[in-house]
Amino acid sequence: MTTGLRAERLCLRHAGADRDSIRDLSLEVAPGELLVLAGPNGSGKSTLLDGFARRLRPRSGRLCFEQIDLHRWHARAFARRVASLPQSPTCAEGASVESIVRAGRHAWIHALGSPTARDREAVERALSDLDLGDLRRRTIETLSGGERRRVFLAMVLAQESEVILLDEPTAALDLRQQWEVLSLLTKIHRERRTTIVASLHDLAHACEIAERVALLHRGRLYAVGAPTTCLRAESLRDVYGVDAALEKIDGRFVLPVRGPADAIRSL
Amino acid sequence: MTSASVTLWWRTEQARRPAIVWSSLAGVLLLAALVIGICVGPTLHSPATALRALLDHADPLHVVLGEIRLPRVLAGLAVGAALATSGALLQAVVRNPLADPGILGVTAGAGLAALATIVLWPHATLWLPLFAFAGGLVEVVFVLLLAWRRGAESSALRIVLTGVALQALCLAGASILTFLFADRAPAFSAFLVGSLNGTGWSDVAMVAIPTAIGLIAALASIGSLDLLLLDEATAAGRGLDIRRTRFWLASVGALLAAAAVSVAGLVGFVGLVVPNALRLVTGPSHRLLIPIGAVAGGALVVFADATARASVPPLELPVGALLALVGGPYFLWLLWSRIP
User: Among A166, B62, B164, B332, which is most exposed with the fewest C-beta within 10 angstroms?
Assistant: First the structure.
């Protein structure tokens, strides 16, 4: 019996679009796993995450969490279990770092109640986990892109959910910041057994952190499985249209691209 | 220090400034509004004289100060608090600093409903705020629906222009009603510009009850209001039901606007000026913005009304005209600096 997030023969379509961005896709996210969604631009990674985050209703098929249809969950109850973050979160100017991280506790605080000791603890822990202690009183517009990303990640951590959905958490970060975000994700995953579903552009990164990779191609699930089996040369040729193969150098994955290639078979 | 670093210092400091400082500031402002509102008018009185007159029923000044000025000041406080809070709520709902119950036409919608109640059902004055609320709510829901487009967040301009169009419709309805029922309708020009002339104790009750309900609802929604500072996807990921929250907050905003309209007519710009000016000092969080804004809005209306009474005695200018003198240029400045 599965208790995690599950998509069954799912079709998703954005409002106003004339075709489905996710087509007939079935995928189970096992509790406690770190799953990376990979695929070229437009393959449906963000759309699938939108579906899991309840931002899109299935056009057909089913989306559920703990066997219950996602859209039957109460918004707060769901947010206590599943936290999501879009690719480029924004906040009004003038909001302090601390107030943004505190927003992560919304699902836990009753409308008429005030934050409890546990809420304050969660905020403090998230601030220190992301090394934001010194920035806590700064306002969002005074921070760099990397610092802002850390603030929003801290907000997600403060939510203390068992599942975290992240859309391109390393986008627009420099090399060092990318490395920091990825190592933080693996650390949280390892220490708290948090289920993490993240879309990543960099396949070498995906291989480094993922337990499983789901490779998307034109809205369908091309392959899912262990990173090295999922991202073989022929898959890369089919899905990305490149002649490339993963190599391991000094225990690290690299992905040299030798040039464009025609697909062997198409879906 | 450069101005940028001064702003930064001020912003970082404000987060540390304890609640007690803010509450005492609000208390001083409230007291100042009461004292100035009661003492200033066509005739000036010292606070001591005024206090004596208020407490002593036999005092010759008691009727003027206790039966005319005091209810007028209290009504002004409630009207200002309602409008400022309504403005803060509507700005959060449409994610735009240009929103205001006047600009979005909520007061016009409430006003039309109130006017229709007065001329068509003259004995229902007790229910006036309720009908005004219904009118304001229908109007704001129409604005949100008409400005809404599939798949995209409504732009500031779209919302504001939709509000302007609906406001024109409501005002046209109101002027036709006053024309047809000239014998029963209140002075239309005073209603249009907003005025506190002739408010008595019954008006205080009429505005204070819905204002209190609306304020409590707004204070209970501070967490949701702050989440609306985030983009929609991020807010939804924290467990906020965006559509339900927007409808709820727009309803509370309409209730507050309706409360103000029921006694003072279409007083404009308080809901625009107060929250926007306050944000420069308190930051965008609603934890301070809602309670301090309510006090500041009330004080602003009372100060403006005192000025309106004292400036050309024995005439009393409508308070709405004075507020528009401040609010109009402020709106232009906001439009010029915030809309690319």
Answer: B332
